[in-house]
Design brief:
The chain is of the alpha/beta class and 553 residues long. It contains 19 helices and 27 strands. A hairpin with a 6-residue loop joins strand 4 and strand 5.
């Protein structure tokens, strides 16, 4: 069994898979159902309306994708929360008389986004709503990271459907993962598959062992046989040795998964009482999977003991709020296997070396944006994803629908839908998207996204301005700047890439030069109507065009 793999993997498949995603959408062969899960009613309404507007860009060109937006009223984790959302969606589909398609997607657009403060607050506390440089079909629109997470799943959904799988792709928020491998479709190969894990078969490194969970795969069948939580490299290798798994491979868990409808149905029925209890919550990774693959309660107790002996507290914290957790998960597996008259079958689908785009942290956001002007395979793939051309002018610039004063010194930069009118502007290795500016000084590089600033100065490397508005704004080295457009007026907020801790001290107290804390900013934007706030921001942004002496092009 090849699990859809074609022999050999290469980064070269990134471009091929990105183009395949777009072709599937263009051919109206994409997903017919998308379930969106968020944490409150305003977000539920926001994401329903958003995906209705972008479904022609993201799912099918003809826009014939049903959007069902659900709400998780209390924290449930992506396991119980996914089951809860599927129960809500199934009920709504029955009421509408809508038939469940072979494969559907569930987009879980949670995330307070504290570590991306203050940009998250400028987005109304919706981190997955961060706009990318990729334009939508509607003039002046840009697809968000949540859009691209779904768009990048088109090839996956098509592969699973054509291989006979019937179920739900559960997609975590705004992650964009492009496979570095070519999947070969074998019809009906996945028809008796109950879940699909998305993995990268690679040798463990110290960093990967510490930051990622690991899926254990039977080398002969390709079936998942166990999962290890993230831990140091020595401990991970010791676990492999102690279990004597010579015929097994380790693979990095890439996060999301596909779950069969039958498994969702049975799990939802057995756990229906737990789903309704506010104090019970649990994610799939790692403990649901570990519990599913413990063959006995004694083996589960070995896992509990292992964590206790090695100073881990994950299972301990879980059992405090969910003391009968293993018994419930074991009951799910036993009833499932009794119902289908076979063992649970979970396949590990290899993504090869994935191209993983994460805009949830300041550094990863900045690194991803700055890569757009590079000439590496990863940079070219990222430009393909954002639908940015590769051709440059004689000064090394990629200019897309932009107007720049002919005497301005712009070099080795990317400008998309941007206006710069002053001859004294200097930009080197800059990224400007959706900008309206008179004078820009960016000699050391930097990023300015959707800003309207009369005079924008980047004082050092790695600065990022997002939705900044004003007469004169300076961004320090490694600095961040944005503006909240509230009914009371504009509030400037700054942060710094070197700040990694957004715990209580840095989130609840005003830091740097800010007048208010990030927590106060989050509360202020949450109290306002999202449509009115967005309209207010657009009016500020658009008004700068009338103040600029824009040359005709």
């Amino acid at each position: 069994m090849n699990n859809g793999l074609r022999s050999g993997t290469s980064r070269g498949f990134w471009k091929q898979n990105i183009q395949s995603n777009s072709q599937i959408i263009h051919n109206n062969a994409g997903l017919k159902l998308a379930v969106v899960v968020s944490g409150n009613v305003p977000d539920q309404d926001f994401w329903h309306d958003w995906f209705v507007n972008t479904r022609g860009d993201v799912f099918r060109h003809d826009g014939k994708t049903e959007i069902i937006s659900t709400v998780e009223p209390s924290r449930k984790g992506n396991f119980l929360g996914g089951l809860q959302a599927w129960l809500q969606a199934s009920s709504e589909m029955r009421n509408r008389g809508f038939e469940i398609p072979e494969v559907a997607i569930m987009s879980m657009v949670f995330g307070e986004g504290k570590r991306l403060s203050p940009f998250t607050q400028a987005l109304g506390n919706r981190k997955p709503a961060f706009p990318t440089p990729r334009s939508g079909k509607k003039p002046g629109s840009y697809l968000t990271m949540a859009d691209l997470a779904n768009l990048s799943s088109a090839r996956l959904a098509h592969f699973l459907q054509e291989s006979g799988f019937r179920g739900l792709i559960m997609k975590w928020g705004d992650e964009v993962i492009i496979p570095g491998i070519d999947w070969t479709i074998n019809q009906n190969e996945f028809q008796d598959v109950d879940a699909v894990r998305f993995v990268w078969r690679t040798e463990p490194s110290s960093q990967l062992a510490r930051e990622k969970d690991w899926v254990l795969i039977d080398r002969t069948s390709g079936n998942m046989s166990f999962q290890f939580a993230r831990q140091n490299l020595q401990a991970l290798r010791s676990r492999m040795t102690s279990r004597q798994m010579q015929n097994s491979d380790l693979a990095v868990n890439l996060g999301s998964a596909a779950i069969s409808y039958k498994f969702l149905e049975i799990a939802s029925d057995i756990l229906k009482d737990d789903i309704d209890l506010a104090e019970k919550w649990i994610d799939w990774d790692p403990y649901v999977w570990i519990a599913l693959f413990c063959t006995s309660e004694a083996q589960w107790e070995e896992e509990v003991d292992y964590e206790s002996r090695n100073g881990f507290d994950g299972i301990g914290q879980l059992l405090q709020r969910y003391p009968d957790f293993y018994q419930k998960i074991s009951a799910v597996r036993h009833r499932f296997e009794h119902t289908v008259s076979r063992s649970l079958r979970v396949i590990a689908l290899d993504y090869g070396e994935p191209h993983w785009i994460d805009w949830g942290l300041h550094r990863s956001l900045r690194v991803s944006l700055e890569s757009l002007i590079e000439e590496t395979e990863m940079a070219r793939a990222t430009r393909e994803l954002f639908n940015i051309p590769h051709e440059r002018d004689r000064d090394g610039n990629i200019l897309v629908h932009s107007s720049v004063h002919p005497n301005a010194r712009i070099s080795n930069s990317l400008l998309i839908n941007t206006i710069i009118t002053d001859a004294d502007s200097k930009v080197n290795r800059g990224i400007l998207v959706g900008g309206r500016h008179r004078l820009v000084n960016m000699p050391h590089g930097g990023c300015a996204l959707f800003c309207a600033v009369n005079e924008l100065n980047m004082l050092g490397e790695h600065g990022v301005a997002f939705r900044s508005i004003g007469d004169k704004i300076e961004v320090k080295e490694n600095g961040r700047h944005t503006v909240l457009c509230l009914k009371e007026g504009l509030i400037n907020l700054v942060s710094d890439e070197t700040i990694h801790d957004y715990g209580a001290a840095n989130f609840s107290n005003a830091i740097l030069d800010n007048e208010i804390s990030f927590a106060e900013a989050a509360n202020l934007v949450a109290a306002e109507d999202v449509k009115l706030r967005e309209m207010r921001w657009y009016q500020y942004w658009n008004s700068w065009s009338r103040k600029l002496d824009i040359p005709k092009v």
